[in-house]
Amino acid sequence: MVQFASDNGSPESSNSSTSTGLSDLDDSVNGSLKPTTSSSKDDKKARKKRKRRRTKDGGISEADAQPSSSKRRNSLSKAARDPRDEPERKRKKKNKAEGTETRSPSPVIDFDGLSRPSRGTRERLEESTEQAAARFEKLRGAVRTILECVGEDPDREGVLDTPARYAKAMLFFTKGYQQNVKDIVNNAIFHESHNELVIVKNIEIFSLCEHHLVPFTGKMHIGYIPRNNVIGLSKLPRIAEMFSRRLQVQERLTREVANAIMEVLKPQGVHVIMESAHLCMSMRGVEKTGASTVTSCVLGCFEKKEKTRNEFLSLVGVTRGLA
Ligand SMILES: [Zn+2]
Predict the structure, then answer these.
(1) Does domain 190-316 have CATH number 3.30.559.10?
(2) What's residue 84's pLDDT?
(3) Ligand 1 centroid vs 240 CA: distance in angstroms?
(4) What is the superkingdom listed in this entry's lineage (predicted)?
(5) Which of 30, 55, 75, 166 has the most Cβ atoms closer than 10 angstroms to its Cβ?
(6) Are the beta carbons of 176 and 243 closer than 8 angstroms?
(7) What is the pTM for the complete model shown?
């Protein structure tokens, strides 16, 4: 009877200690301690006492008492019953997650190659002709609203067709939402033993800053070192264009292109550099017309070898030691 009650009580009390915000360490101590104490009568008593105390004050006094007890400290070195209670393992997991965050935090290509899994992207990719027409009408109406809001007469002859024209242009500027890396690459990956630096430079980029919907334009340089496979050279500018025809920030655009190449080609390394001028900087805000922004993303062997990085930088004509 007593045995039943105390056994029944233990998981319950460990639940309550979790909900009161006690540390995981605390949980694991309770868990691993249990089997070792079940034989002795005194320990049973002590357990009951502890349990009573815990239900009274939410386990606070027990938590305070624990560090001073050498018995409990010993139990830390024993294997925890539940793997989730094991403090060592938790620490390891955390370290691993920290390590992956240093470079390329997320794989840009998801299972279908869409590379930005958002509801809107998928809807736009899969829409019917009717849905596309409805989208266009909605956008046209919104642009008409903008005209009204800036103080124009939307029925004035000069701007009468502007909403439709702008809607069409906007859908073109963002056509990258309807494309995916898989279709663009289209199996244009060829086995080739060339394992030296391949560069496509001065790729013109026209993108829209996602913060202001204002253009930023510039040039992108892509370099990679193959690992027995090369990609059709025209595919590199096309990958860059796909990502630039979405709302972007330059840093992400650079990274997404590098990650995409890394993902589809699995080369030894990729280095992408982009230099561009942002209209949101030059037309508003700081109004510095001459400023250009340079971003760089290095993956694989470029990350490890300075010599390889410098070879790329000197070949594309960007200042040495920049990346
Ligand atoms: Zn901006």
Answers:
(1) no
(2) 56
(3) 19
(4) Eukaryota
(5) 30
(6) yes
(7) 0.64
